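Appendix C. Worked example: Oxidoreductase molybdopterin-binding domain-containing protein
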Amino acid sequence: MRSGSFYFCVCAWLLFTSAPFLSAEASHTGSIKVMGTGKGNALASIALDACAGEVVTVTSVDPNFGSDGAFRYTGVPLQAILKRAGVSGMKGITLVGRDQYTVYLPAGLAANPDVIIASERDGNPLSQYLGGPLKLLFPPDLKMHQSAYCWYVETLIPDYVDNPGVTVTVGGRTTRYALSDLDALRPEHKTLYLSIPLGYRWDLPKLKQPCRVTAIPLGALFDGEDVTGKKLTLTPFSGRPMTLPVAPILSCEVMLVYRINDQPIHPALGGPFSVYFPVMSCGELEGIAPETASLFFLHEISVD
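Step 2, the predicted output written as structure tokens:
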């Protein structure tokens, strides 16, 4: 919930500790990555400048700053961005911010021409303090909950992503693993309390915990390679990459998770791929694993 003194403190902490992924300056324009525009999890970058003919202005109140009153927000309709990216036939869309905050909207709501990706407020670029440079904004008549206002919007993911894959680079050699390739590596089935990204999910059923996951140890992806003393970088398609030593990844059996309850991981739950760190059972991960014990939206793995 994005309100009150608690959220203010969280925002302040993010702004001072997240320099690698929050730009110090806002911009009138920008670009958004759209996943699933082709085979696999290909990303297309849509520049808002290219949508200049579809720019609209909506007078609305961001309930996260409700006491500030109404402002004129300028931006591009979400549906126009999806159309330009060639996205169609989806049931819903997941928006991911640079802080990995996640908002899932059904297709009908995303098609509302007044649901926009805003870049300006009263003619001024949206600063990061207001959720910019790009923020999801709704018209007031929809009366959306304040947690639905996705800030720092970076990536859009339709729910039909076709044949997703994760790429692994070791020693200069890159291999792409689709779901069927991971199945061939003799995955494990575990019952876990699995973290999912913070966010707003319009009509998705709540994930019941613990849940059954299908996963493989990350080490299985570079089995037979000499990785002694090397480091591993996990790069999500939205958010910051993280680099850590390979040794605890192997000894603690950090897992690549790619199914929940026997189904591919929905983007709104951090999919198609996430990484699970068994922090409660392996002390070697203390201080190097994410606080959530998971890394969401995994896109690439590299060892060097």
